[in-house]
């Protein structure tokens, strides 16, 4: 009777909660037709399967709901309240990142929180200022907090500076940001990120599928809700509201404790089984599944396949922040438990223990299997008499991918590793030279049925993030030619792999196969357009990019790519208009600002060009090309000191950017600093030996120093690249005169008289006349 009474009370609460929810969805997420604004309907992700607002659970499960709010999952994402921010912002927090020479300030203003960045400019004042409001806090605060900004269009970006609990709480850069050329305010949050940090956000139905842009325009829940583990709640709530019996009510929801051990683990592993956070791929979601479509109780492998580095390739002891399931599965305790050891053996997902209470709970679990053995070892003197199993067998360890975080290692080992597991780590930054290149092996499930689909997925995993292209490309190509599947994404991944290695004809063919099977496949149209452009087919490339713009003419990235094609085609006015559309659609897109500046410079709008270059640098202070372009513009107006500042910034940002070396050398030569100019030209030709003009200018500098033989070598290299370069013919002719090689000199000077540059023609003619007046033998 008591239980029945609680159910009745729960129904009353649910009716009220359901009423509130229906009001909110009626006002905040009406259909496009009802709103009349053309925007798509917004519903909780997965609502087609019965997911509802997680707050609906509180009507019957108030006590569990309240304790759950103290768990890491319950606090995985929140609004930026004073409690969630975890810091006293009576005074702003200031943080300087030395590696990128950027100053950050985190502060509160009028009840809102912001993250601001600035640098010190050429004249000593603040420059490159960017300020973004903090809309969400990711992380419980047990280890870290990351801060997110949401744009008006529903795009979410990670802000650069994070808070870490270590050392009593301190500020540092987010993972992947602790180097000079970090993403700044432009690291976009994907559907997959949101899946493991929040419940079921309101999105347009179907927009969490492969190829969809990550947009979160509607309500975003705070934290992961009950349905992530228990499945869709609509039928369960409906069973309560309609007065069904208790058995029917329970059958209408998933109780993970009633599942077999493997399905129980799957519920946890959907978020806690990251094999690696570096390029591989870690996992591949099946192409017919949306991000939010996993249902507790189903095989996780029917939703997603997990992959790992091949054994013995130096990655066997990696330890990363989302490695709980991965490390536990390495443990002999887990492997020998025959399903008796799962995550919930130690952890109560509805509540969290801390301190001594937590230790007692975990040790008690260990003792259920190991008590007798430990007592024997203690009597024999082979084990210490300790009530703490964790310190030795599950020690805390610094994570490799988030170096400011220390976490419990869930790999239960017989002996603790001898090294210092808490020692500071330098953040690793993967480059083309250090990236993993080897087999991508299936990790979970251990094996899949030998079907056509399995063969395609296993082959595709080799190429998806370019880890195993040498073996993977022919493997996937053979599987596609054998089975000819209708799933367009397989062809797209192979096309991207071909494009990555420069086999453009093969890439184009596979992209075309993808769009023929899925005409609305936007990413494939973009890939086709950019590949056609790289292969010299700009007209067809532009056509494909316009096709990609069909559903969303405001996509800044596609507009930028289209603008580049128009620029190469000499359509300057149309290119400028296209780049303007790109920056209007995404004002923080630095590349589009830089490209717009380039077009404006060509059509003579130097003021507009300078503004665009400065906008690009403000948004991305390490943008080498933008600094170089701005410096070149400043040289043209005679501002040599400021130009030199930006040339140096370009070189600091990318020491291998040959155009900046070349352009800086030109500026130094104009300032008659010939020795310094020669150094820049020498570096430019080392970085880009095919840069004919740099060879010619280097030769000029060498000739001025009297190093005629070396100058002749570089003039000849310039002409080997561009046989019509008048300046190089003129320089070589002059150098040959100094060696009394008049006949050879005349040949090159005559070529120089046909130059398109008037100054070169005039100088060549004067040199020929001087030879004739001197009566030198020809």
Key words describing this protein structure:
alpha+beta; Serine Threonine Protein Phosphatase 5, Tetratricopeptide repeat; 7-stranded antiparallel sheet; 4-stranded antiparallel sheet; 48% helix; disordered N terminus
What does this structure look like?
The protein has 778 residues and is of the alpha+beta class. Among the domains are: 110 residues, no CATH class; 138 residues, no CATH class; 105 residues, Serine Threonine Protein Phosphatase 5, Tetratricopeptide repeat (Alpha Horseshoe). Helix content is 48%, strand content 10%. The chain contains 33 helices and 18 strands. The strands form five sheets. Strands 2, 7, 8, 9, 10, 11 and 12 form a seven-stranded antiparallel sheet that branches. A four-stranded antiparallel sheet has the order 3-4-5-6. Strand 5 and strand 6 form a beta hairpin. The protein starts with a helix and ends with a helix. The N terminus is likely disordered.
Strand proportion:
5-15%
Oligomer: single chain
Spans of at least 5 consecutive residues with low confidence: 1-36
CA-CA gap between termini = 119 Å
- The chain-level structural class is alpha+beta
Number of strands: 18
Average pLDDT over all residues: 92
Q: What coarse outline follows from CA principal-axis ratios?
A: elongated
Biggest sheet architecture:
7 strands, antiparallel
Figure out the total of helices: 33
Question: What is the percent of helical residues?
Answer: 40-55%
Q: Could you tell me the radius of gyration in angstroms? A: 32 Å
